[in-house]
């Protein structure tokens, strides 16, 4: 948790085309827990082992993609301070009232240089993970319902101005750079991909340079083990969920992963593994030539759909 | 072990183009144990947990592919009986003298309807798995050398006359049909792929209908677990071994697998899992339409290189 | 599958004290599938991935223990031949009529020198594993219900005359000796434990020398992986199933295992792993001094309850 | 990483009785990397995937146990601030000069209410994990040398005044309480065990109430998976390392673990798993009656040696 008080990715609002199909997909196939619906037609989900009310909000729309991503911060004082710091950095912020999102307090919202709507909030109702807080078992029946990821882990966002994002996240929000991907040598090797952490996870958010602003590459959900990643892949096969790549391992972050698409064409990831990078570490660099193994370490292939398809 | 006394796949002789590169690959990268060299330039290997002298023989050549595959049988009497039975079936056999292959007894050799040279033998020197036979530990240092498969498991061979092969293996050699793949409906759904077992493994040998005789699709090596399959994939990435498909799971046999190519372009497999089919079971059928999930259960894709490349 | 035509452990009838509690335990906690009840109050179960009607029969009784164990053989001709061979060996046999056990054909029954009732049969109705026989997925919802073992694997029986049992199984029934445990040096190192296989499993049945005849050490159920063994242990914890030993690994057979007791005090095992010994292999020996690591390879302890408690 | 700037457990100095035996144990059996020796006879080690120079220092002595544990903090300013805060809390501190420990900067040292010597430091030379920082593979040969833990994870310390420790760690050092164990109801249920985190690990340090001050229950080393925990157990068996408990799973923190003793009788742990508790979470409570499952979730037993043996 960053020294600034930013804790973790808290929630993402995802645009879906067919709400009923999407509910079935996220609840029964991915295996999230539905926790609410609001009067704007949005449906709220959490992963079984998360404690907060919701981490994924589905919003019916004509186009797929991500509406906004929100990170939880330590408390209201932290929220106020970060709001001041973001404004001082030159980015306008607005406050979204408590309750605008069910069970969630005020959100400080601003638009990243990459075009994405980003939020910070301090309050979200705790609903628990279904296990008692006294003498609990290590898991519940929910752990086998669908793919049953344990948490919403991060998202990878595509948009312009990756370097400006990096400045904001590192200097203002207190993230640290864990891994980065360089562009082609002939273009002077700019950083075209950055993996940022506010914790000792390999990334809490990531950005890749892309012409169009505000695009989603994937929302990522954490699985406990590589064996559970395979089980997720089996469930995708059983339900004809179209897979992009995997099972495989990324060189980048060492994650053991499968990427696939939800019914609206939004890409999601189910992954396990990684390592534990702290803020005092040195970032890992992937060159343009080395990146095929960064994407798919065993195969060393640049899978085209993975590189190009976004919502 | 088939009631006829056929025990298991015993050895395969593989043609390789660059002997030194191949030795380095099979010994250090795949992680087999070198057990001998003969005066015909052949190099002999076994998997670390196998007891017999060798299961893979590399033979230097101008063209890649498989020279022959041999199965071990219970004893000399069994060998004699099977020789009689194969001849009675209408297939000519010859005897290859003991010692022609290092540390191996006489081999009864014949050509399958698919064009492949097939052998049966009763004797091969036991060299052990490096562990004591009294109070042994469960593994040795060899278990971490390279990918370190535990045994040569089976091969999949491409050639014509799959049905004639099936007759021979089922009626004469005592195998049972575990799974089968049907051809296109419009072609009348012939059986174009068969997975045969002389044990309770999902297959000890498999054939796919193909115009050219005597072709090798892959030699398969067994890994203990899905985690070790990933480790094998990592080692392939580290050594730039070109991967065909995987990691993934087959619907056919449920195997958890990676396929890749050796330096000569011969395909090999490192796999785990499966199930235990006995001779009293009923075969599983994959239709032409269902086969994409049979090949890659999560992805449900017909990977073209997997379907077409053989040596 | 032994050259004699003996295929695998087929069924075991277990005496239970409280039928309702036992049904709940075997169906909901261990996670077997109930397949029938007969007019003698017996309840029939199979493991989810087994094809035959039943592999465990619970029989209400005043005392726990095993009534009989039955192995499936290839066909009626095999059954007849084995009946002749057992009689020729000097052991009286009787035929139990078809239907005496639900969905099961005639059984040839005889009493082993160790006092145990042993049966062979050729017919049992196939009910399938719940998956289609065309284009099946690799598992079903049943695979997560309770501990969900994939098959009834073997039992370990305690009784006198282990050497006489060994003669019968090796010479008449066609099993091979995979591992053996020696007694104390001062007693002349008799073989006090034997692990016998009619397949390439590490054991299909095992015997340990014991004064009282006809005792059950444990019934064993196979789990797909070490991770699923831990999950079974978690389920035992959740349900307060008393564990004897484990999770751990045996040196003997390398099995990764937990032993625990059912509500009647019958011991059962949930295990994964092992290796693939063929009839042409050489048995592994555990000396009396080495046996602590044979029992519990990491800990090297002779757990007293494991050694002494039987039903 | 706590908002105060405390990052992680950095190093522990352990007293060992036979230095040569201990070096062999920690280097070859546990599988740490030796990184230095100093003129006071101390030997320095790191886990293969750690970046800093050392995390375990062996100090030859007449008695086993722990000399001190040090945590890394963000920078020198953080070190100064924490020094002030600890003093303001009423605990005297001293500065140990840079270089007193090889490759380590100044340490702020103080004695905890439990009697343990505790340190904070900001600088330690980075030696890397043996992998390149550009296009790295996911692991190296070091990952298979011995048990090869990936990091020094935490220690559990026994001593009096657990509540005073809790105040210091929570109010001054910025840790959060993740799990706690209550004492007997008849004694008024005091908190006798506390698991504290300065990150989203289940614990970075833990304390249990005990009469004698300054005692070590165990040093803990992290393994990547449950399969690697079994491998560690196998290595313990091969090397006759005496195991205390395991393999098993704790209810407390859900960790999948084995505990054993080094040649001096210091207990160490090799574990995997857990979950990700953030500072905004609510602690889990284990009652005195519930603690058997907290210790060993499957078995639900209070293993006596685990409870009582300390150095």
From TrEMBL, chains A, B, C, D:
The protein's Enzyme Commission number: 1.13.11.2
Keywords of the record: Aromatic hydrocarbons catabolism, Dioxygenase, Iron, Metal-binding, Oxidoreductase, Repeat
Broadest EC class assigned to this enzyme: oxidoreductase
Catalytic activity annotation: catechol + O2 = (2Z,4E)-2-hydroxy-6-oxohexa-2,4-dienoate + H(+)
GO MF annotations in UniProt: catechol 2,3-dioxygenase activity; ferrous iron binding
Ranges for domain VOC: 8-123, 151-273
Stretches that traverse the bilayer: none
Record CDD domains: 2_3_CTD_N (cd07265)
Cofactors demanded by this protein: Fe(2+)
Subunit structure: Homotetramer.
NCBIfam families: catechol_2_3
UniProt family annotation: Belongs to the extradiol ring-cleavage dioxygenase family.
Annotated protein name in UniProt: Metapyrocatechase
Organism: Zavarzinia compransoris
